[in-house]
Amino acid sequence: MVFLAISGYFFSVILLATRVADLRPYFLNLGVILLLVTPLLTMRSLAEERQSHTDELLMTLPATPAQVVVGKYLATLALYAAFLALTGVYPALLFWLSDPPAGPILASYLGALLLGGTFLAVGILTSSMTDSQMVAGLTCFGLILLLWVVNWLAFASTGAVAEAARVLAVFDRFDDFTKGLIDSTHVLFYLSAIFVLLFLSVRNLERRTWM
Amino acid sequence: MIELVQVGKRFGQRWAVQDLTCSVEPGEVLGFLGPNGAGKTTTMRIVTGYMPPTTGSVRVAGIDALDDPVRLKTRVGYLPEIPPIYGEMTVRGYLLFVAEMRRVPRHRRRRHVDEVMERTGVADVAGRLAGRLSRGYKQRVGLAAALVGDPPVLVLDEPTAGMDPRQIIEMRQLIRSLAGQHTVLLSSHILPEVASTCQRVLIINKGRLVAQDTPDNLSARLGGRRHLRLEVRGGRAEVEAALSEVPGVSAVRFAGGGGPGTTVVELELAPGTATPQTAPGDGSAATAPGIAPDVREAVFFAMARRQLPILEMRSVDMSLEEVFLQLVTHEELEPAPPAR
Question: Of A72, B132, B265, B307, whose CB has the highest number of CB atoms within 10 Å?
Answer without folding.
Answer: A72
